[in-house]
Write a structure and sequence with these properties.
With 237 residues, the protein is mostly helical. It has 2 domains: 3-100, no CATH class; 105-235, no CATH class. Helices cover 65% and strands 5% of the residues. The protein contains 10 helices and 4 strands. The chain has helices at residues 3-23, 26-45, 70-73, 84-100, 104-116, 122-133, 137-156, 161-165, 181-203, 213-230, and strands spanning 52-54, 65-68, 170-172, 233-235. A two-stranded antiparallel sheet has the order 1-2. The radius of gyration is 26 Å and the shape is elongated.
């Protein structure tokens, strides 16, 4: 998920908190509960989450409470303290981190993945790296899948692995030994078929559920392997 979408969801969560404090209506509380786990995880990853130490009012006394999770206690806060304001402050800090582009773990993963894209097949690198660098991870992965399909079509006239190796008579050289040649070609066929299935799955969702640069790179690596293998392909009838 890109930073802009994360910010939108965090702002939406803040609006739920504000509405709950005004109305105390059950549907809003339900929305808060449904989104709390995600928001809390984002705060932790941005290093904006912190537990609390709460002290009782001097006039009444009581135990000092340590390591209080404000998300777990905000609907029933100890000593009547308003923990919604604490949560909103954490969210605002997280939004600031996202706007600055300095999410620690996310940036590290992106840098490492960008560096390793240089090892991809030249066609995958050329056609997908720009999308990857812009953070369009789903589009980059889908583009890699299309590059493989284009190669199959160029070789055989068919776009899918099953048809290319079936009707198209595609054969890939490179088996470790003659007695495993059939297994090797089946492996390449099933790899291209898997890529086709991944492409269908990703193309039928709004954001393809790829918001991690490392995961996007793994999909690109899959397409890159297929392209390297297809470099040694020919048609046999």
């Amino acid at each position: 998920m890109e930073a802009r979408e994360k910010i939108r969801r965090l702002e939406e969560y803040k609006s739920y908190l504000s509405q709950w404090q005004r109305t105390n209506d059950p549907p809003t509380r339900s929305l808060i509960n449904q989104n709390t786990a995600w928001v809390r995880r984002e705060l932790i990853e941005a290093r904006c989450f912190s537990s609390l130490t709460l002290t009782p009012p001097a006039i009444t006394g009581g135990l000092i409470m340590e390591n209080v999770d404000p998300f777990l206690a905000m609907f029933d806060p100890p000593y009547g303290q308003n923990l919604f304001e604490v949560v909103v402050d954490m969210i605002d800090r997280c939004i600031g981190v996202l706007k600055a582009g300095h999410v620690p773990g996310e940036n590290k993963a992106k840098i490492e993945a960008v560096q390793t894209t240089r090892d991809l097949h030249p066609e995958i690198y050329e056609k997908c790296r720009g999308l990857f660098l812009k953070g369009a991870y789903a589009e980059a992965a889908e583009k890699g899948f299309k590059v493989v399909r284009d190669r199959l079509r160029k070789l055989t006239g068919f776009e899918t692995g099953s048809e290319a190796f079936g009707k198209g008579g595609l054969y890939v050289k490179g088996a470790a030994a003659p007695n495993v040649d059939h297994d090797f070609n089946d492996g390449v066929k099933f790899l291209t078929m898997a890529i086709d299935r991944f492409r269908n799955e990703k193309s039928h969702t709004s954001d393809a559920e790829i918001d991690d640069p490392a995961r996007a790179y793994e999909y690109l690596r899959l397409s890159s392997l297929a392209m390297h293998l297809l470099d040694s392909a020919e048609v046999r009838h």
